[in-house]
Amino acid sequence: MSGSMRTRLQEAMAQLDGKYRAALKDSLMQDAFDELWPAWSVEMGAMINSEVLSSLDLLLLTAAVDNRRLLMELRARLEEPGRGDR
């Protein structure tokens, strides 16, 4: 892949969508993959500004961070007052 980091990321995303996602047999896995796109799109600037990792590494890192964010939100909901053990 040559070109700007933005171009490389977009090419990697397109290739993953066209080949990797299409090869996933489980529809829930395909749905989960689709949920990565918003995080990748929103955090494109952070990925572009990184000079250490490859495009695929950056996509994976961003997905992991987004997963962690979701886990933190779920934990906060579970720890809300009044939710106690049932």
Describe the model:
- The chain has 86 residues and is mainly α.
- The chain has five helices and no strands.
- It has one domain.
- Helices cover 74% and strands 0% of the residues.
- Helix 1 crosses helix 5.
- The mean pLDDT is 85.
Largest sheet: none
Overall mean confidence score, pLDDT: 85
Helix coverage percent of residues?
over 70%
* Gap between N and C termini: 53 Å
SS summary, helix count: 5
Question: How does the overall form come out from the CA principal axes?
Answer: flat
Identify low-pLDDT runs: none
The percent range for strand residues is under 5%
Give the arrangement of secondary structure elements.
Elements: H1 5-23, H2 27-34, H3 36-42, H4 44-49, H5 55-78
List keywords for this structure.
single chain, 86 residues, mainly alpha, 74% helix
What can be said about this structure in brief?
The chain is an all-alpha fold. It is built from five helices and no strands.
